[in-house]
Design a protein that fits this description.
Glucose Permease (Domain IIA); three-stranded antiparallel beta sheet; 5 helices; globular
């Protein structure tokens, strides 16, 4: 390695060293649902740093590495755009359940769900790579548990992906009476390989509060109890915004 470093022109050696140090600063610790730890590339925080350093080093090197710097800058822009997190106005309508994800409604179906108390409605949302990938809590609730399931990486548009893909079920209980129980499922897609979920059992989150994300195209499902007075306020094919669009409302 030392021979390789010495063989480089001084400017090139500096660039490699600085980029390597930048990579190390971007390593971030993640706590997973299973209690394990891993280190991964920090993404949104690290790429802009690399891009700026690349530009600086390129100009110091007399423009020799300007093409490389431009490439880094393009990657930086794409990463920052993908990880964008716009502000959302959370509605204060009584009994409202807001969307847990940005995307398009692909399924609305009645299912049987033991956690929700039997009859339930499952609302499926597909997130393309162009959607904001931050997940939000549908109403003020306490996290009851997290259930992880290993699985495949099917295209998230395929109905069977909801059953067969890798996923994390966030089980929540409404803070206010009648304390309805719901589930938000984060489901990976064909290219999404990383589910991020920050809260732990016992945490109380407000409606529209961020709780995680799925990176690079995915699917999110909301399972809520079916009871008298429940009104589903969206339809298949409709675009929704996390924390803003009301997908359902309990009127009793």
């Amino acid at each position: 390695m030392s021979d390789f470093y010495q063989a480089l022109p001084p400017e090139g050696a500096k660039i490699l060293l600085v980029l390597f140090l930048s990579f190390l600063t971007g390593l971030e610790r993640e706590e997973h649902h299973a209690g394990s730890e891993r280190y991964s590339f920090g993404g949104v925080r690290t790429f802009p740093l690399i891009g700026l350093i690349g530009y600086a080093m390129a100009f110091l090197a007399g423009g020799q590495f300007l093409g490389v710097a431009v490439g880094f800058a393009v990657v930086c822009g794409l990463v920052v755009w993908f990880f964008r997190n716009p502000r959302r106005q959370v509605p204060t309508v009584s009994g409202a359940v807001v969307s847990p994800a940005d995307g398009k409604i692909v399924t609305i179906e009645e299912v049987s769900d033991e956690f929700s108390g039997g009859r339930a409605i499952c609302v499926g949302i597909f997130l393309s790579i162009f959607d904001v990938h931050i997940n939000r809590i549908p109403l003020r609730a306490r996290v009851i548990g997290l259930r992880y399931k290993r699985g495949k990486m099917l295209n998230a548009l395929r109905p069977e992906s909801a059953r067969e893909n890798e996923q994390l079920a966030v089980r929540i209980e409404e803070e206010a009476p009648p304390h309805r129980r719901m589930t938000v499922r984060q489901i990976t897609g064909q290219f999404a390989r990383r589910i991020v979920c920050w809260p732990k059992p016992g945490d109380v989150l407000n409606a529209g509060e961020q709780f995680g994300m799925i990176k690079l195209g995915s699917r999110t499902e909301l399972v809520l109890p079916c009871e008298t007075g429940l009104e589903i306020t969206v339809k298949v094919g409709e675009k929704v915004l996390a924390g803003t669009t009301i997908v359902a409302r309990y009127r009793n």
